[in-house]
Amino acid sequence: MAILPLIIQLAGGAVGGNVAGGLMKKFSLGTIGNSIVGILGGGLGGQLLGPLGISTGSGSLDIGSILSNILGGGVGGGILMAIVGFIKNAMKK
Fold first, then answer.
1. Cβ count within 10 A of residue 10
2. Which long-range contacts (CB under 8 A, 24 or more apart) does 90-93 make?
3. Residue 88: its H or E element
4. What is the tens place of the pLDDT at every residue in 13-24?
5. pLDDT digits (tens, 9 = 90+) for 21-57
6. Which of 17, 43, 66, 72 has an alpha carbon within 20 to 30 A of 83's alpha carbon?
């Protein structure tokens, strides 16, 4: 497994988590919380794309693989942040 795509996915996840937190203030975990959950989601989301048949470029540095790693990590980070934020709010009640 190449390390560069994973790093790109983790960074994309952090950004995705913070974007999702900014768009859904009700579920936001704060900047640090959004970043941490986004990083986890970015790693998971990026790794799940391969088995689903969506190539992440496994190590190559062409623009398509870089963009797919960013997108996969960002979406994964945003989705996981929304899920964790929803659960956190549900537990408050």
1. 21
2. none
3. helix 63-92
4. 999 999 999 999
5. 999 999 999 999 999 999 999 988 877 776 776 655 5
6. 66
Q: Quote the pTM value.
A: 0.84
- Residue pair 43/76 in contact (Cβ under 8 Å)? The answer is yes
C-alpha 27/C-alpha 4 separation (Å) is: 30
| 56-61 contact pairs (CB < 8 A, 24+) | 56/5, 56/9, 57/5, 58/1, 58/2, 58/5, 59/2, 59/4, 59/5, 61/4
How does 12-47 read in b/e, with b if 16+ C-beta sit within 10 Å? bbbbbbbbbbeeeeebbbeeebbbbbbbbbbbbbbb
Structure tokens at 1: 């497994």
The answer to whether the Cα torsion of 30, 74, 15, 36 is positive or negative is positive
Find where tokens 């995705």 sit: 16
